[in-house]
Amino acid sequence: MAPRLRTGPTHASVTVSATSSNSPSPAHGVRADVSALTDVGRTREHNEDAYLVADLETGVVLDVTAGTTTVAPGPHGTLFLVADGMGGAASGELASSMACTLVFEAIRAAWGTAAPTVGSFAEVLRDATVGANQRIHQHAREFPEHRGMGTTATIAGQLGDHLYVVQVGDSRAYLVRDGVARQITKDQSLMQRLVEAGELTQEEAERSERRNIILQALGPEPSVTVDITQQQLRRGDVLVLCSDGLSGQVKADEIAHVVVQEQDMRVVCKRLIDRANARGGPDNITVVAVRFDGEGLADVTTTDSVGYTAYPLPGTLNDLNRDFATPRTPASVIKSDPTPRFGTQKPTAEEIEAERARLGDLGSEAAMPSLADEGPRVVGMPPEVVEHRRELAQPIYVVLGVVALAAVAWLVYQWRAG
Questions:
Q1: What pTM did the predictor assign?
Q2: pLDDT single digits (tens) 144-190
Q3: What is the pLDDT of residue 354?
Q4: Could you tell me if 82 and 211 lie in one domain?
Q5: Range of the domain at 203
Q6: What is the 3-state secondary structure (H, E, C) of 386-408?
Q7: Could you say which of 12, 29, 99, 139 has the lowest number of CB atoms within 10 Å?
Q8: What is the dihedral of CA 128, 132, 133, 139, to 10 degrees?
Q9: pLDDT at 337
Q10: Residue 335 located in a structural domain
């Protein structure tokens, strides 16, 4: 069966050891009730979002649109994916569709008959995402009409009682536990960087005209550095994956409220999409909702922690031994404009002040920008990459300076001789 594609706060960082356990917790007795929906929204003509839900044990992509589907995850786990394409209708739809297909096919190709370990599971998720980026980028190079195509991707793999999430861009994963929704991914966005740097508050970032600028996507560049996080599942946990068409309009506490009120995951998806559309629906909206239950999961305890928890793995943003002199984050594209643009991740002090001036009174409804004509955008390279390239360019600057001085001296000499 073909993949099911489109048819119609600040976090405390926690790091866990990638080698603390080499065997997944038992999958026996775990149940996942899942549904997914996507909607074009109120202002877009095309839906560039895509999603996929797959049983990795059987290799079957599940049709979860008609209602809630119950999955009994096997030793190879389950896969949940949301992608938000960019580059115009044809290119954006193609990029997000390719991300779903390529990631799933790569994971299936990597599995043998033996059940994966935690380490191999995370590595396969990483490699499948990196490989999808290369394939999407190569396609854009071969077909100029798709130049600049790309897609965000939030890819959740469930293995036993653990969830591993690969993140590229600003689609999101929330985990709802005990009536509280917490974001377990971190946006790879300009606004997230500014909030972490203390340059903007979370409220200012949420109202910013530049909140759609993202720092990474699959496809625009030949290489990508993914972020991987992990979360231990408890009985009754609900995972919500969504594109920014939802997260940009519906807050985390509202997501939690809907999840608490509704047991049916399809109703959860529909109510969340309806709420985003009621607020203008300025972008495509996609939601995948999964409720985990069963005897294979432990009950919630007071010592449990939910949030962004880094899973360090070589070749990822959380690789503790990475070489900071080596470019890792690609230069980026702007989703509302398929032409690649380059820049820095951090604006100047003047730009920040201009941003604050545009925001105006945070309590004023008039201060909120309209995003109807904008999709997520991407800019920038990491500061260490910029510095590395600046160092490489210094000898060229010296030579150019010498040539310029010689030219000036020759002009002065000619003028005096004349």
A1: 0.76
A2: 999 989 999 999 999 999 999 999 999 999 999 999 999 999 999 88
A3: 57
A4: yes
A5: 14-310
A6: HHHHHHHHHHHHHHHHHHHHHHH
A7: 12
A8: 160
A9: 38
A10: no
